[in-house]
Write a structure and sequence with these properties.
With 177 residues, this protein is of the alpha+beta class. It has 4 helices and 9 strands. Strands 1-4-5-6-7-9-8 form a 7-stranded mixed sheet, with helices on both faces.
Length: 177
């Protein structure tokens, strides 16, 4: 399937772009830190968004792009098939990181190259802004971590403490630009 990746200025962001987005992910195993080591453990649940999650996400997207971040999306019939939100605020000991704050592909559009295209767009913008690494606070599900590994992500050299506190089960990753 052919996708067009575009960026959304703050004035073009609308809540309706998330209508019908299928976040659903069945999780069977997650990576967890046990005695200082990452181990794959049986952890079963379904990750999905409810109306409150979607409202929070929409506000987060709007605020992030208003303060200099960039939203890359793949619109299909007035909605997003996938998106990558790059936070525009550098961090790290040498301001070497930009955060891939949100990164999702709707279920019907997965495994068609859209995630790779969105990731490449975010990396290109991060590189253009002078970052040396893309930072990812990655969902610890086995499938999510495997996808990031296929993209070439590795363990983050520095951990963003605020992100780690907000999502303690996430795994800090980086991608060298």
């Amino acid at each position: 399937m052919e996708f067009t990746i575009c960026s959304f200025p703050p004035r073009e962001w609308r809540d309706e772009l998330l209508e019908g987005f299928e976040r659903r992910q069945e999780v069977f195993h997650c990576w967890r830190r046990v005695e200082g080591e990452l181990r794959l453990l049986p952890v079963q649940y379904v990750e999905d968004w409810d109306e409150g999650d979607l409202a929070w996400l929409s506000r987060t997207i709007q605020k992030t792009i208003e303060r200099g971040g960039v939203l890359f999306g793949a619109p299909k019939e007035g909605r997003l098939a996938g998106f990558a939100l790059l936070d525009g605020q550098p961090f790290g000991s040498n301001a070497q990181y930009l955060d891939l704050a949100e990164f999702y592909v709707s279920a019907p559009f997965r495994r068609q190259g859209l995630g790779r295209a969105l990731f490449a767009a975010a990396c290109g913008e991060a590189r253009r802004r002078g970052a040396r690494f893309l930072y990812i606070s990655a969902h610890s599900a086995e499938d999510s971590m495997a996808a990031y590994a296929r993209l070439g992500c590795t363990a983050a050299e520095e951990v963003n403490a605020a992100l780690a506190e907000r999502e303690p089960f996430d795994i800090p990753l980086q991608f060298a630009l």
